[in-house]
Every structure is written in structure tokens, then in C-alpha cells.
Amino acid sequence: MALYGTPKYIAHSDRPRDLKLKLLFLLFRFTLYAVLGIALEVSLYPTARAGREIPIIKYLFQFDWQVDPRLGLSGPWYTPLKVLFGQSSLWMIPVYALPALTIEQVYRLGVFKWPWWLRAPLYGLLIMFFECTTGLALKQITGYAIWEYLDAGNVLNMTSFYIFPLWMGAGLLIERIYRELMDPGLRDALQHELEHPPAPPL
């Protein structure tokens, strides 16, 4: 199956799954997407800084992504690039996991039949929607902008059309991960681990 091609079906295991296993598998995917999202956010700081020095590639990194100045957390943009320093917030766990799980559902509802060049912008817009709404919600909850965009393409300072190409790529990556997780062999292996967890050490 091509990486971004149009799949003909969604592979899945035919084994019955009770509610407990479904919830555990959902929790597994929630955790996986959250961990990957935070890892990508941390890596985006040095990646964006390095990318801005490369011709043509630099246009993918024109967004001005900052943190509320009252938090004094702008350091990662100014540390020596060789230390590869980044940062994130625990609030980002649901911020990354929820749009990923939504992309799963959109994909299952029939978007998997679309060509990749139509799926990608849809995913990008979904991620931007979640980024904007969760950013505004967190600002109300915490009193701080956990993130903010200050470039000319920003929307309410909570997302930006300048980062849209990266979010399209992220959406396709989420889709690919989901397709792999639906592989019958992998799902059966995960189900076996959930049904038969290893015994605790003596």
C-alpha cells in the first residue's frame, strides 16, 4: 500500500472486542498520539531554526510561534542550535491526542477513499481548528497563552496559515499510524497483551 495513496479498505482484525478492550485500545492510541505530538513539538524548535537557513525549505517555517512573554520561556529560540533544545507543556497531551483521534474518525467515515492531496488539506484544517479552539480555552483556564502566533498569517493568535503545510503533513502521518495500528497482526498482538498482561515481578 502506498504511503499516501488511496487505500481501498481499512484493515482491521475480525476478532470480537468487548468494551473494555476497545477503551484500552483507545487509551493506547490517545497516549501514543500525545507522546508523538509532544516529541514533535520539542523537536520543532531546532528543526524550524535550522530549516529557516535552507533555501526554499525556509518557507515552511515562516510562522512565528511563541509562548506568553510573561512566562519567560522564549529561550529555545535563542539557545545554541547544537544543543537541540525544545520545550512543551503537559497541557499539550489532550491538544495533540484529540485532533489525532478525530482524524481517525474522519478517515473511517469515508475520507480514506479520497486522494491524498484532498485528505491532507482537510487534516490540516482540522488540526488548525483544534489548535485555535484549545488555545483559546487554555488561555481562559490558565490565564496564559500556552502558545501564540505573531506572524501575519495568524488566526486569533492561536494558529497560523503559515504552519498549515506542516499540519497537512502531520495529518497524513496520523493517518498512516492509524492504518498501521489497524493491521490485523498488530491489533491481535496488542489485544493479546491487553488480555494477558505480564505477571508482576516477584
Describe the structure.
- With 202 residues, the protein is mostly helical.
- The chain has one domain.
- 53% of the residues lie in helices and 4% in strands.
- It is built from 5 helices and 4 strands.
- The protein has helices at 19-51, 92-108, 116-142, 164-181, 184-195; strands spanning 65-66, 148-149, 154-155, 159-160.
- The strands form 2 sheets. It has a two-stranded antiparallel sheet with strand order 1-2.
- Helix 1 (19-51) packs across helix 2 (92-108), helix 2 (92-108) packs antiparallel against helix 3 and helix 3 packs across helix 4.
- The radius of gyration is 19 Å and the shape is globular.
- The termini are far apart.
- The helix-strand sequence is HEHHEEEHH
| Beginning-to-end CA distance, first to last residue | 45 Å
Query: Helix share of residues?
Result: 40-55%
Tell me the structural class. mainly alpha
Total number of domains: 1
> What is the overall shape?
globular
**Largest sheet, strands/sense/barrel:** 2 strands, antiparallel
Number of helices: 5
Could you give the topology of this structure?
Blueprint: H1 19-51, E1 65-66, H2 92-108, H3 116-142, E2 148-149, E3 154-155, E4 159-160, H4 164-181, H5 184-195
Antiparallel strand pairs: 1-2, 3-4
Helix pairs in contact: 1-2, 2-3, 2-4, 3-4
Q: What can be said about this structure in brief?
A:
The protein is mainly alpha-helical and 202 residues long. It is built from five helices and four strands, in the order αβααβββαα. The protein is 53% helix and 4% strand.
